[in-house]
Amino acid sequence: MNAEEVRQVLLDILSRIVPDEDLSGLQDSVPFREQIELDSMDFLDIVMELRKQYRIQIPEEDYAHMNTMGGAVSYLVPLMKSVSATA
Amino acid sequence: MRYDTLIIGAGLSGLAAGIRLAHFEQAVCVLERHTTIGGLNSFYRLRHRNYDVGLHAVTNFTPKGTKTGPLSRLLRQLRFAWDDFQLVPQVGSRVDFPGKSLRFNNDFELLTSQVAAEFPAQVDGFRQLAEFLAAQELGVVTDPDLTARPVLQRYLSDPLLIDMLLCPLMFYGSPTPDDMEFTQFAIMWHSIYREGFARPREGVRLIMRQLVKRYRELGGELRLRAGVKSILRDGARAVGVELDNGEILEADRILSSAGLVETLALCGTQPEVGEAPPRPAPGEITFVETIHTLDCQPADLGHPETIVFYSNRPDFRYANPAAPCDLDSGIICSPNNFQYDEPLEEGAIRITALANKDYWMQSDEAAYTAAKQHWSDQITQAASGHVPDFRARTVDTDMFTPRTIRKFTGHINGCVYGAPRKCWEGTTPLENVYICGTDQGFLGIIGSMLSGIGIANRYALRAT
Ligand SMILES: Cc1cc2nc3c(=O)[nH]c(=O)nc-3n(C[C@H](O)[C@H](O)[C@H](O)COP(=O)(O)OP(=O)(O)OC[C@H]3O[C@@H](n4cnc5c(N)ncnc54)[C@H](O)[C@@H]3O)c2cc1C
After folding, report:
1. What is the pLDDT of residue A87?
2. Which of B46, B407, B411, B438 could form a disulfide with B418 if both were Cys (CB 3.0 to 4.6 A apart)?
């Protein structure tokens, strides 16, 4: 998967975790939590959905990378490069 | 078969925990002793009518689209859409004490204006109290010995107002007599006064059906008539359970909604004498409820209120009464009085009163039936100052007691709000047995589901 595809994966996950949020204007460099209502339980769900759907393990010390869309995409691209976008 | 997680109890907390675990692909099984789901919040059919056990109103109601608060968090965590629970807001409720009434609904402004009108000298303090409570982080216990009354007394000087404000919150969630743990109080304040009441038109069946459907779709296993006789252990770890029929199931961890003391008994780790106080103890607060089916809508008799909390004494007494039932106070609930598009077919008035925990367990069958009839009449009579006389319109009556609750949920003393000391961390002396539901600390319909979710996240999902 390339960066754009990883971004789409994250958007799909977010749209299921916070279905009432409008994600169309989400900015890459601003923390998710400043743009949408995302509590710590929801945040953990992003990590767990990635594990469930793509078998990616994200250790707790790396959670900080996941605070923004930009950070999450750069962190995940190397981990997901062998995943095909149609998976 | 070896499970990742076994869950004891198919009540709200157990099923909510089950949905989380099944969603994240655990091998999970919910074990329920009774023949049906629901626990304290179950339902039954009697003489061709559907009855709910534990639903007056769903608390914590916030309107569709609200992005914060317990209800929205719960829906997101379980991946339900807002419409799945079909919650319809209340019409309005009232606290009735001798000479004073306070009305409230799902808009906090009404309560504030009522306090201003009825207790003008207190309203500034009331506003400050509301601000103070709004700033609390809910469910975070800083001092387990802090109770509500001293905090209320900091802001309010009229004991009548203090008792009137406490009355609905204690009735809907206090496991302790006369006063309640501050954390519990702050949670109840938000769930009743700041958020509010709602109900699915179909009652609790709808909520339970949605939970089970989702749980099964996700591959979760549910076994009814599968009581857990004991939790099997290897030293300080649980390795599985033995069912009432002798069957053995193995698991990596166990989540129990059976109650703290009840679960410790299953583990064979009764609290030891001399254990650091406070020792785990079962609660003593329980209720009877008489349910009248009417041949008309309560509103047609001049009773439009959703719920009336009343005390016939200015000093509200909330305790295990010496008499079989406490006739001095109660809750009058009409499931008809929510803002439905279509009225319910039949009218109903439910009256709940504090009940003696021992009396209802001891009576023999004939005496028990006679006592139910007698006390149902007494309670209805005692409530008559707070609801128009509907007795001529009653077409059927049923009553449940602490004994009913004990029989169908296994909770010691038939206690509705569980142990006086909550176990907020959810841990037990066994390293992989966790408490969820009422005795973990969050109770009520929304609260107990959130408890199941929280404990599942913390001990069964994060840790794996
Ligand atoms: C009369 C009444 C009215 C209520 N009204 C309201 C209301 O209006 N609004 C509101 O929000 N809340 C209300 N509640 C409270 C609410 O119903 C409870 O807080 C909630 O249902 C608790 O859920 P739980 O999962 O913690 O426990 P439970 O529902 O008690 O679940 C525990 C389950 O475990 C099972 N079990 C126990 N031991 C074993 C064993 N050894 N093996 C297998 N299974 C076992 C029990 O059978 C039970 O099904 C009411 C409760 C009652 C009784």
Report:
1. 52
2. B438
> Residue B174 is part of which domain span?
106-191
Chain-chain contact of A48 with B81 (C-beta, under 8 angstroms): no
Whole-number pLDDT of residue B138: 84
Q: Which residues in chain B show pLDDT less than 50?
A: 273-274
Please identify which residue in the block is written with the tokens 């010390």.
Answer: A61
* Whole-model pTM over 0.90: yes
Q: Which residues form ligand 1's pocket by a CB distance below 6 Å?
A: B 8-14, 31-34, 39-41, 53-59, 227-228, 257-258, 262, 266, 289, 405, 409-411, 416, 437-438, 443-445, 448
pLDDT for the residue B271: 52
A-chain residues within 8 Å CB-CB of B68?
Answer: 37, 39
**Which residues of A have a CB under 8 Å from any CB of B?**
16-21, 37, 39, 41-42, 44-45, 48, 51-52
State residue B270's pLDDT score.
60
Q: Are B248 and B346 in a shared domain?
A: no
Distance CA B39, CA B54 (A): 9
State residue A82's pLDDT score.
Answer: 86
The domain total for chain B is 3
Q: Are both B313 and B268 inside the same structural domain?
A: no
Domains of chain A, by residue range, sit at: 3-80
Q: What is the pLDDT of residue B279?
A: 67
Using an 8 Å Cβ cutoff, are B125 and B155 in contact?
Answer: yes
pLDDT value, residue B50: 86
Asked if B303 and B375 sit in the same domain, the reply is: yes
Chain A residue with Cα closest to B463: A60
Q: Closest Cα to residue B256, out of B4, B14, B1?
A: B14
Whole-complex ipTM: 0.90
Locus of tokens 């037990």: B428
**Percent helix, strand and coil across chain B, each to the nearest 5:** 40, 25, 40
Q: Do A48 and B72 touch (CB under 8 A)?
A: no
CATH 1.10.1200.10 holds for A3-80: yes
Query: Which residues of chain A register pLDDT less than 70?
Result: 86-87
| CA-wise closest residue to B119 among B136, B141, B145, B100 | B100
Q: Do B453 and A48 touch (CB under 8 A)?
A: no
Phi, psi of B325 (to 5 degrees): -135, 150
Please tell me the predicted confidence (pLDDT) of residue A20: 84
For residues B452 and B359, state if they share a domain: no
Q: Would you mind telling me the total number of residues written for chain A in this entry?
A: 87
Shortest Cα–Cα distance, A42 to chain B (Å): 7
B455 vs A contacts (CB less than 8 Å):
none
